[in-house]
Amino acid sequence: MNISQLSYSKHCILVHNNREYFINYRPIKNCIEILLSNSKILQHFIFKYENKKHQGEKSYAEQNSGNWWKYAEASIPSSACILSLILYSDATTTDTLGKSSLHPIYISLGNIPTWRRNKEDAKQLLGYFPILFAKNEKEKTSPEFKKLVRETFHKSLKFLLDPLFENENGIDYKINNRIIWFFPKISTIIGDWPEACTYSLTYKSASSNFPCHFCLVQKNDLIDTMQDQIILRNHENMMEHFNNNTGHSVSLEPVENYFWNIPNLNIYAATVPDRMHHLDLGLYHYQIKFTKGILGRSSIDKMNERIGAIPRYPGLKIFSKGLQSIARLTASKHRDLMKVIVFVVDSLLSDDLSEVYVKWNEINNTRMNLIVTTCYTCYM
């Protein structure tokens, strides 16, 4: 996707401190039309729910095999199809619209199989949210400014997404010279942890009483994975706290959530962490940093020697000089490092250290499966 060649419209979403803040955007219907006009995508496009089974038991693969799709499809006419919307956003610095910090948001479709959706042409840049600037440090830390930032973000979402939901009778798209009747439904929102909190309007601080945007488990109890009764966040219980002005008791921001009015969506379950931030730059990074912290200088040198001695292999990144600075490692380099780290740390400290990495990779594989299962099966 050549971002510099894309044309944008501008809409003023806010005037604050005598400064106008604009959304630079592309109409969402046009973005979807571009995806649906791609013949390579349409070869594998998914239209209907599939009740997949393996050895007599329910199994899950693509989105259309999950409970969310099943229930969403049951809520629309049988002759219509679900158009599953996947949103991804993350604040960044860009040169496209002048050197500035902006907040891009992308759209893809859950109707596209995962392997095909990972290709560049299977997603569209929907636009850029503005990032608000405070006039001074006092305003920046004030509750009023914090609330304004949240309100502006959700006001921007409403402006971008409302054209898809303004007609309760769905929307028609032309596919292979046929008119297909679709009902757009938001299935998944991908982002890092702060981004998830912005969409769900829960407190961003990990020190808050209820730091998880999925559930209502207090921070001191999150380590107790054996809890039988876990209350999940949903639109009903969060709206009740919002209307009763008791949102602070469940770490909920005093801002009305745009997604509360979107059908077949639980924003708290639909907002999931992406692999890059959650695993590659999060847990992987922490584990390597922790390992270096418990090793002595000589053991770290030995670890770097082993990493540098690994021979070249197709598809595997080689660290010829060892780990000079993990702070500069990209997500893909972290993934490559985790493929070999089990053998690198073997007997450096004790046999337990390499076993920790074996278990660590098993946990991460399970965690990824849980993320996928949450996306496809655990909410309506």
TrEMBL record:
Pfam families per record: Plavaka
Annotated InterPro entries: Plavaka (IPR041078)
Protein name per the record: Uncharacterized protein
